[in-house]
Amino acid sequence: METILKERSNNSCELCKALDNLQVYGVPPKEGTSAEECAYLCTTCIEQIEDPEKTNENHWRILGDTMWSEFPAVQVLAYRMLNRLKEKGWPMNLLDMLYLDDDTKAWADSLEQTGNALVHKDSNGNVLQDGDTVTLIKDLNVKGAGFTAKRGTAVRNIRLDKDNAEHIEGKVDGQHIVILTKFVKKN
Description:
Elements: H1 2-9, E1 22-26, E2 38-42, H2 43-50, H3 63-66, H4 72-84, H5 90-97, H6 102-114, E3 134-136, E4 140-142, E5 147-149, E6 154-155, E7 159-160, E8 167-172, E9 175-180, E10 184-186
Antiparallel strand pairs: 1-2, 3-6, 3-10, 4-5, 7-8, 8-9
């Protein structure tokens, strides 16, 4: 398997392109028994993936290039790291561009589901999922953007905040904003 991964990666880290200290990394929760379930990574990437406290934002700026890998294991890792760093701002644009097929997206989100995943509910108690469309149930002043999001506005393709069950993210009038779940209803 290592030979396949070395060839596939041109003997470099599939996330940051480093050339030293490379090894096979099984992407959880998969078993890592085939090359399709693994990535060829440097020890720096592995250390930061496994320990969020050691995450160095600047190390991951190359994800704008490597997230386009044709290999699902690499796409999953890029997606997870961009989500971890999304509060920094720049990863949000990359996440908006990144496309994962349904199986790869389920794999990427699977760690969240196996842990103590938060349940996001709209104003009526309906469970929200990533990608849902919601409607605003009241006018909302958008801080810092200088406009009001009007009641009845549809917000498509929402993203759930993995750290707060009361927050979702979406675009209104071309602006990426955070919305409280109590002010939306699921379509």
